Amino acid sequence: MPTMMPPTLHLPLLDATTADLFFQRLLAEGNWRQYQLNLYGRTVTEPRLIDWAGAVTYRYSGRVLEPRPLSPLLCSLREQVERTLGMRFNHVLINRYRDGNDYMGWHRDNEPELGSDPTIASLSLGQARPFQMRTLAKTDPHEWLLESGSLFVMQPGCQRYWQHQLPKRALSRIPGERINLTFRQVQT
Ligand SMILES: O=C(O)CCC(=O)C(=O)O
């Protein structure tokens, strides 16, 4: 068992009706793409769709995310997150998981552009999904259920000493769709 907890915050940000409204509007306005990844010489299709927006270029997972303006909807979400945390973010990466078959495996958000020890604020909309963190020594994971409208904050220390994942789950347990927005501050 891990002997400590990662430095995180988990709080409700939007009520269920507002979260559903934002979810439906983001589904409709997103510029959703499913990418191919080169994994140890094999081409694999990423098990989720992505979109993004931000003021600066962000090199993420082997690709270059060019600057794109935030829509009024994304600006409004960012403002609520920034006001709640008293922090600024200049990039949002948006992941869309169509059901329990879509996932994101163990990783850290440790691209050099994020600085040495970033804070990442993660807003969940739609289907509730478990989210896990484990130490770099791969100890037993801690798990949270990320409900629609909740904000999960990975504070400094999380990307340095911990990995996180959104695990795959049986369709019978996770039949619905989820959108996750991670607000980041990319260094310029
Ligand atoms: O969808 C999630 O909650 C996790 C997203 C994530 O791990 C990431 O964007 O790095």
Automatic annotation (TrEMBL):
GO terms for molecular function: dioxygenase activity. The keyword Transport does not apply. Keywords: Dioxygenase, Oxidoreductase. PROSITE patterns: FE2OG_OXY. The keyword Isomerase does not apply. This is Alpha-ketoglutarate-dependent dioxygenase AlkB. Signal peptide: none annotated. Residues 88-187 form the Fe2OG dioxygenase domain. One of its GO terms (biological process) is DNA alkylation repair. SUPFAM superfamilies: Clavaminate synthase-like. PANTHER family: ALPHA-KETOGLUTARATE-DEPENDENT DIOXYGENASE ALKB HOMOLOG 3 (PTHR31212).
